Description:
Helices cover about 20% and strands about 55% of the residues. It contains two helices and nine strands; from the N terminus they run ααβββββββββ. It has a nine-stranded antiparallel beta sheet. The chain is globular and about 35 Å long. The protein starts with a helix and ends with a strand.
Amino acid sequence: MIRTIALTMALVASSVHGARAQAAKPVRDSLTTRFVGVWDGSFVTNHGPGGGMQVTVARDTAWKVSIEMAHDDQAIPTRVTDVKVIGKTISWTQDVMGMTCAASAVVDGTSMTGDATCGQASFKMELQRK
């Protein structure tokens, strides 16, 4: 009887320790793993020539996006605000060359495709996870 009680207590203690060890492991958020990283590709626009585009997505306490756009060897200054993520879609507001653009893109595996509307101008992006 004493052996049975001792064995039962050992099993319970082992189960509690195992549960604590599992709870201590960080859980990877699928949205974070889906979006965070460097995305590289190109953009095309109805308002002039297209070019290269790199989108870097980060997340600590909030979503952050930085964007580098270039046409030929000339960098196009851009600033990103209001980043939101819902499901497979990421959206942001982007200031490009004095225009405010509403942009959104969908992630499907290692591809990110989307578009932005900047008043009369617009552009489409096709990016791959780097």
